[in-house]
Amino acid sequence: MSCVPLWAKRLLRLPGGACPPATLIDVGVAYGTPELYGTFPNAALMLVEPLAEWEPVLQRLAEERGADYVLAAAGSEDGILTLEIPGVLTWATSHADGGVPAAKTASDEGRVGIVRREVPVTTLDHLAADRALRPHSFSRSTLRAPRRRS
Q1: Helices (H), the chain
Q2: Which of 127, 100, 24 is nearest to 92 (CA)?
Q3: Which of 6, 35, 53, 140 is the most buried (most CB within 10 A)?
Q4: pLDDT tier for residue 79 given thresholds of 50, 70 and 90
């Protein structure tokens, strides 16, 4: 298990960690998270990605792993979000809230390579209900380091 990333090890230590999750929700998929998928190869995959540019990756994962996906950002409530998409897509993520920027924004509105686009926002709760996801689901964002209290 030495090749398992720290966040995957944290998942194994969560209550019920001895019982692998039935569903993994990967928010902000981009290239995918093969370490997570490989750690739980029998889990169903739900992929949440707001950028249509990553759809070929989502389609490949749907074919290879039977993943389900939605082109949307994840947020605390349903709606529409305007993203400022940089020319380098690896900077972009789909978290619409939680202190993580929805996309790396330019301080200069006229900056070359920045495109504004409206994308739908869904909550993970609505996604789970709409897609009838299997219980014991964890999202990659569950595994982020806890915030320090001041």
Answers
A1: 6-13, 34-39, 55-65, 124-131
A2: 100
A3: 140
A4: very high
